[in-house]
Amino acid sequence: MRVELLLHVISDVVWIGGMFLAYLAVRPAAVEALEPPQRLKLWVGIFTRFFRWVWAAVILILGTGFSMMGQMQPVRAYVIVMAIVGVLMSAIFMHVYFAPFGRLKRAVRDEDWKAGGAALGQIRILVGINLALGLINICVAMLGSMI
Length: 147
Hints:
Layout: H1 2-33, H2 36-70, H3 77-98, H4 100-109, H5 113-146
Helix pairs in contact: 1-2, 1-5, 2-3, 2-4, 2-5, 3-5, 4-5
């Protein structure tokens, strides 16, 4: 279970840390420094690379999380809350990947900057929600394990 926990936590750090960096550092810097066409192209490049890691993180988080739950007797309430939040976050990520990210890539390819901006705006909102959920889940993990 220690290796599973290690993989679980590293995957959490990659995903949540990446969202934190993108949302609170890269986004404001990109808005200040780049015009919309360059900014949208940058985000396609960032997301293309980052989302590969997020897919791996999601698979590892869900796989290790449910595996560790299966080894617990009984499963404590805070662990169930963490699982529910993790599944919700994964569903939000999959929506981002298959819907607005797809629209963003097409808009950049077609140089439709208005549509690209709209898609990026949707991604920003959903990443903000997932970042908040991820930080809440960290608090649940830490506080729940103390009770």
